[in-house]
Design goal:
By secondary structure, the protein is mainly alpha-helical. It contains 9 helices and 4 strands. The two termini are 38 Å apart.
């Protein structure tokens, strides 16, 4: 029967962890490692990935039967029992990462539970993501309107002006979010007219605001 390790987020057999001969960190003798946080008190995804990589041999390959979503802010029960704000914060796109299951298990195995962020930090994070998504959705709809050949020119102009007014309002709301929580740089999304608003679409597309961050490439060995 396989030895089992009990994690806060579930139970997995040892084959779902890196083999012992590849590990550079032993929690039985060295203890768990403090989860890296950023200056806002939130789990820092990139530092966490680097930490996980540095605790195994450089040539180890993080191959897993499947990949899944890791909640950066865990355990789930702590947020579920805290408040509606905490529950919504934990489920934000930016508070998750798509990684190999074996790496997911390893992070839970070697790191301490991250502390619950302040309510202020959670609220600002929620506001920032909601506003950024609203800005992106507004621009995308405006671009879609320009591609509809059945709309008369006069009506299209009116509809685009409406989207521009909404867009301007969202940008003003984005200004109210503390700089360290903003997901979009205000200087890059400011628009004085419809044409400038439409031009922002390409920039927003690169940000992939609706997609959970993926860190597969960061876990592959350098060629």
């Amino acid at each position: 029967m396989s030895e089992l390790h009990v994690f806060t987020e579930g139970v997995q057999p040892t084959p779902w962890l890196p083999p012992r001969e590849k590990r550079l960190w032993n929690i039985e003798t060295e203890g768990k490692i403090e989860t890296p946080l950023d200056n806002r008190g939130l789990v820092d995804l990139d530092l966490l990935v680097e930490l996980g990589k540095q605790t195994v041999e450089p040539d180890y390959e993080w191959r897993s039967p499947f990949n899944d979503v890791h909640h950066l802010q865990w355990p789930g029960i702590a947020y579920k029992n805290e408040s509606e704000i905490a529950r919504e914060f934990r489920e934000l796109v930016g508070r998750k990462a798509y990684i190999p299951r074996r790496f997911h298990n390893w992070l839970h195995h070697i790191t301490e539970l991250p502390p619950l962020p302040s309510e202020e930090a959670m609220v600002h994070s929620i506001e920032a993501e909601h506003i950024a998504k609203a800005i992106a959705a507004t621009v995308q709809l405006a671009v879609k309107l320009t591609r509809m050949k059945t709309i008369p020119e006069a009506k299209l102009e009116i509809e685009l002006e409406k989207r521009f007014e909404i867009y301007t309002l969202y940008v003003e709301n984005a200004r109210l979010v503390p700089t360290e929580f903003q997901l979009l740089k205000i200087a890059e999304i400011e628009a004085r007219n419809v044409d400038e608003m439409l031009a922002v679409n390409k920039q927003l597309g690169k940000r992939a605001l609706h997609q959970i961050p993926i860190r597969m490439r960061a876990l592959k060995q350098a060629a």
